[in-house]
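Quick one: sequence plus zinc ion SMILES, need structure tokens.
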Amino acid sequence: MTSQPTPAVAVATDPAQSTWCSHCKADTRFTIGVFVLSSTGVTRVNGLSFCDVCDDPDSPLPVRRIDRG
Ligand SMILES: [Zn+2]
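Reply:
Sure thing.
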């Protein structure tokens, strides 16, 4: 059994940038670009994006309910 050579791949990220969150209407969203460096070149994959308010599992926004009596 012969072993295949392992392709040289590295992953790099952008510094996080704060952006506008359209859901909670605040400048609380962060976007991080992700790049994959391989022998064929550099590929930008979908960046990571999360909102400091909306995506916080410890303190999610309260569910809005309309009390219709
Ligand atoms: Zn948000």
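The radius of gyration is 20 Å. DSSP finds no helices and four strands in the chain.
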